[in-house]
Design brief:
Elements: H1 2-28, H2 47-60, H3 62-65, E1 86-87, H4 106-115, H5 136-146, E2 164-165, H6 167-175, H7 195-205, H8 208-212, H9 263-272, E3 274-275, E4 278-279, H10 293-303
Helix pairs in contact: 2-5, 7-10, 9-10
Length: 319
């Protein structure tokens, strides 16, 4: 018996020691890096693709990358990032060759957007939106815009400020959050005449589910429907003062969700921030004025197909 206890103690000590070494390694190293896959891609730019790319960039990227001083996508301190992720800065994504993406190829950009891997091989942490399921045509549009002569993306030499990831971020990037696979087949846009499919595509690829599910840490970006608390709200993004802004339940539950809303109610809220005369939106949720009524209405139609979840979330209102 004593021999058994001695052996068990040695094994336990080895396990504890190994875990300790692993945690020490995570703490002193940076976000992990991966092998880079070369992607042969050249954006097909046109006035239409640039305009589409601008629309998508304004809804997906500008909230994080728009600098209020430069009025360009030169990056900023993300005060609304959950503090457990560390001190987070968005990066300069103008065409500046030193600080921005001026030296990035279209293939390197598409690889980052799809997989989350930068041109130097380092993984981009979970707070950067990744687009593994976005249609090829829309990815092309975003890159076309980023390479255009629009004033928001022309070269601006505002230096990047490196993010200081927390221990939790480093740990999650080694155990939970991993790069996505580069798609091997073309991803098509949804049929625009199928309102529900169009709404699902927009709700997923405009990252609506990411905020309106239970927690950023349990979101499933390859299949958003598997995210914990899918569209039932309760997630805890922050405003620019670091205050928690609970996200609302957008399922069809009539008591705690939007089951009693009309399509017009939803369109007015999402596009203009107005619901029956009151201010319905607060930062970080901003009005998506770029959406057409058809697109906003399609998102509503899709949300109505999600099984109702009874999850009452009190609105976060600060004076």
């Amino acid at each position: 018996m004593k021999k058994y206890l001695k052996i068990s103690g040695i094994i336990a000590a080895i396990i504890i020691g190994a875990v300790g070494v692993f945690l020490l390694y995570v703490g002193i190293t940076d976000i992990p890096s991966y092998a880079i896959e070369k992607v042969n891609f050249q954006a097909q730019s046109s006035p239409e693709s640039i305009e589409r790319g601008k629309k998508l960039t304004m809804m997906l990227c500008a909230n994080c990358h728009m600098n209020s001083e430069t009025r360009k996508l030169t990056g900023k301190r993300m005060l609304d990032a959950p503090p457990e992720f560390g001190e987070v800065y968005s990066q300069n994504i103008t065409q500046d060759k030193q600080y921005g993406i001026g030296n990035w190829t279209d293939g390197e950009l598409v690889y980052l957007l799809r997989t989350g891997i930068k041109k130097n091989g380092q993984y981009s942490p979970p707070y950067m939106a990744k687009l593994p399921t976005m249609a090829d045509e829309d990815i092309n549009a975003i890159i076309s815009f980023l390479k255009s002569d629009n004033h928001m993306v022309v070269a601006n030499a505002t230096p990047d400020i490196p993010t200081k990831p927390s221990f939790l971020t480093k740990l999650l990037c080694r155990m939970a959050f991993k790069p996505f696979e580069m798609p091997t087949e073309k991803i098509e846009l949804p049929n625009p005449t199928n309102e529900v499919e169009l709404g699902k595509y927009l709700a997923h690829n405009l990252d609506c589910f990411s905020c309106h599910s239970a927690d950023f840490k349990t979101n499933n970006y390859l299949d958003p429907t598997l995210s914990k608390g899918y569209f039932a709200g309760g997630n805890k993004p922050l405003d620019e003062h670091g205050r928690v802004m609970l996200t609302q339940n957008l399922t069809s539950d009539k008591e705690t969700g939007i089951g009693n809303w009309t399509k017009e109610d939803f369109i007015n809220t999402v596009k203009y921030g107005i619901k029956k005369g009151e201010n319905a939106l607060q930062y970080p949720m901003m009005p998506y004025t770029q959406l057409t009524d058809k697109e906003a209405g399609a998102i509503f139609e899709y949300l109505q197909t999600i099984p109702p979840v009874k999850n009452k979330v009190e609105r976060s209102i600060y004076n």
